[in-house]
Design brief:
The protein has 166 residues and is α+β, with helices and mostly antiparallel strands. The protein has three helices and five strands, in the order ααβββββα. This is High-affinity choline transport protein.
Length: 166
């Protein structure tokens, strides 16, 4: 499953859905979109007093790096946005010049998103990071101090206990 990048023409989305990028195409996306987007996002957070960094590491047997953006939120759970390359066998139903292609999969601290950033622009990557960051901050706000859920109020469809006046 490919990612649905915000904005852009529907034909661009179709191109991404049918994309079977080779290592060079994935490397170009990392170099021109993902790395600069994560760096720019980190710099903006730091200019606003947040502690953030981008790190790179190579997985065994993979020439392309995994890039990880981490934002330290003090006592609350850190925000983590990671993009890792994965070599995949090209599905038989897609036209391709090679038996393998490279996905650029997104992972959060909570797990994988089944989102491939191949073909995303810098602006689209920043928009995706920002959406996930906003979602993380919203969760922390709902969870309360420290970012950990203590207990869920009632069952689905049940009003909160103090909603019914005595």
């Amino acid at each position: 499953m490919t990612g649905t990048a915000p904005g852009g023409d529907w034909r661009e989305r179709l191109d991404r859905a049918l994309d079977t990028s080779n290592r060079a195409g994935a490397a170009a996306t990392i170099e021109h979109a993902i790395r600069p987007a994560l760096t720019q996002f980190t710099q903006e957070l730091e200019s606003r007093g947040q502690t953030a960094n981008v790190t790179e590491e190579h997985l065994e047997g993979e020439a392309l790096p995994c890039l990880t953006l981490q934002v330290d939120l003090g006592e609350a759970a850190s925000f983590v946005y990671q993009v890792c390359p994965h070599r995949m066998r090209t599905p038989s139903f897609l036209p391709a010049d090679d038996d393998y292609y490279v996905r650029l999969d997104v992972y959060l601290a909570e797990g994988g998103l089944e989102k491939d950033l191949n073909g995303f622009t810098r602006g689209q990557v920043i928009a995706d990071v920002l959406s996930e960051y906003e979602r993380h901050l919203h969760f922390l706000a709902l969870a309360g101090q420290g970012g950990y859920v203590q207990a869920m109020p009632g069952s689905v469809g049940e009003p909160p206990q103090d909603a019914n006046p005595a």
